[in-house]
Design a protein that fits this description.
The chain is of the alpha+beta class and 294 residues long. Helices cover 27% and strands 28% of the residues.
Length: 294
Amino acid sequence: MATINAGTSFPSTVVTEMFNAVRGHSALAKLSNQTPIPFNGVTEFIFNAAGEAALVAEGGAKPAGDATVTAKVIKPVKFIYQQRVSDEFLKAGDEVRLQYLTAFAEGFGRKIARGLDIAAIHGIDPATKAPASFKATNSFDGLVSNIVAYSAANIDANIDSAIQAITDGEVTGLALSPTAGAALAALKVNGVPQYPEYRFGQNPDAFYGMGSDVNSTVSVQETGGSTTDHVLVGDFQGAFKWGYSDNIPLDVIRYGDPDGAGRDLKRYNEVCLRAEAYIGWGILDADAFGLVQA
């Protein structure tokens, strides 16, 4: 990773490293296809064709089709991540500065991964857990109406019920809360574990041929919320898109209290590293997903 000076942007190689970390820590990024999003957003056109293809005899009339085309605008929103480090960062040589920035980039990737999941699944601000303006229009909790009541003793039946109610798309992925993963691990028939791959806190990549991820972001609650998600299942490959802008600026702030920590940077010989990322996502078809909630 190249050394970065104050007031510059991360080079594309570092941005790629950051979002490789996102794909490793985000349930949505792991289960879906990643698509880069430009600053002004993109429009995904959704073609819903009803009925079947028709045979037309020679000289016969072609029957009318029954289809609708809708558009979904995927517009990025800004995520901020900042971290205080010793002002040695400003005075040290390139090798030490590189160590600081490597650690910062790794932390950035993990936090943005959680931020993407919490915002897109629940429609809440990852920092405050307060509902965001897009909760009703661009989050799974706000859009998905296929909801099954959670029962730890019947978690596999819960998942099956949510899948059976999905009317659009293919079921390609399964995101589980740690509680749901533990419930699967605990299921036994005649004393034999039915899902041993989930035992002892394991996180397998597949569940009956579909992608799988156990992630604590699935069960994050909004402030004052009364429901908890334990399973999100559906067509992550075809009905969910996300991406990021490749320009991520890095600011090195030397003065004041930019993060509200109650500590003046100069007094405590610190600087604040701040990066801003634009990430966008879109749920193209809410009927392609199901939730299991408690």
